[in-house]
Design a protein that fits this description.
Length: 313
């Protein structure tokens, strides 16, 4: 009893199953009561009636199940879930259950028992020890389950409830931004250097401090407006066989110059009017005007004549 870790003031739920001798059960409960003392509590429940009990959630520090030497029972998933419910956060479970070395339908292996405990909500599942079943427990188990194998043994397993209530929720904060590294500390500056580059109001009125006028830094040549030709690149548009072409980001004015030249060529290709009134419409055109019958147009706009008109003319 002392190796379980139960101490004074703890609340313990003792779960027993058939067959269990009344004297052994009574002695076990009395020993538990002596350990927990007056500040503690020991409750006794039968395995078959555990699900019908009215214990409040998170009541007990310990749940001890089928620890009597002459008892044996298979813990169902509902029974394990009820044990998790009545345990306090961080509470512990100690149970004894028959296991088999081979897979069977009614008896679990040690691995499947640990898996069932974890699926019910327990953590830190540990197999404490494995012993042989007593003749009474073996006979009762075979009668209840119909298992007739010879690979049965009794395993004691300990587990604990997580340190939070079942179904509890908590907000998780995510930080998807890039974490900036901590900037390196700036090296300490020499006080004399800081003083050298610091100018106070007293220094401005001090005759011993030489201040340079910013206008004196420019001479007459710097104030003259540069010649646009001097701003052009040396090879910009040079060569007889080389076609003039402005740079992509032209700043010397060649792009504007080429644009004006191209605009002049386009205007020179426009048809010329003898009377200067062709664009006004038929009312202002001569009898032999090639634009006769055409709508009015803007001055300088190129008008495409139809082939029939050119032929008739």
């Amino acid at each position: 009893m002392a190796d379980l870790g139960i101490k004074a003031g703890d609340k313990v739920l003792m779960v027993w199953s058939q067959p269990s001798a009344p004297t052994a059960l009574k002695q076990f409960v009395e020993d538990l009561s002596a350990i927990v003392g007056a500040d503690g509590k020991v409750s006794v429940e039968n395995m078959e009636r555990l699900l019908m009990s009215s214990h409040a959630a998170s009541t007990f520090d310990w749940v001890l199940s089928c620890l009597l030497i002459d008892s044996s029972s298979i813990h169902s998933s509902d029974t394990l879930a009820e044990m998790v419910r009545v345990l306090k956060p961080g509470g512990k479970l100690i149970l004894d259950e028959p296991i088999t070395g081979a897979d069977a339908q009614t008896i679990r292996t040690a691995e499947k028992l640990a898996s069932a405990l974890k699926l019910s909500g327990f953590m830190s599942v540990t197999e404490v020890r494995t012993t042989e079943l007593s003749p009474e427990a073996l006979s009762s188990l075979r009668t209840a389950t119909g298992y007739q194998g010879n690979t049965l043994s009794r395993a004691r397993v300990s587990a604990s409830k997580p340190n939070f209530e079942v179904g509890a929720s908590s907000q998780i904060k995510f930080s998807f931004g890039t974490k900036t590294s901590k900037p390196a500390e700036k090296p300490a500056l020499d006080p004399n250097t800081v003083k050298m580059w610091t100018l106070s109001a007293v220094d401005i009125n001090d005759d011993d401090v030489d201040l340079v006028d910013s206008d004196a830094l420019l001479d007459e040549d710097d104030l003259k407006k540069p010649d646009p030709l001097s701003l052009k690149a040396p090879s910009c548009g040079e060569g007889a066989a080389k076609k003039k072409k402005a740079c992509k980001n032209c700043t010397c004015g060649l792009a504007e110059e080429l644009e004006q030249e191209s605009g002049g060529k386009k205007k020179s290709n426009l048809p010329k009017s003898a009377c200067g009134s062709c664009y006004l419409g038929d009312a202002f055109r001569c009898a032999s005007c090639p634009y006769m019958g055409m709508p009015a147009f803007k001055p300088g706009e190129k008008i495409m004549l139809e082939k029939t008109t050119l032929t008739d003319a």
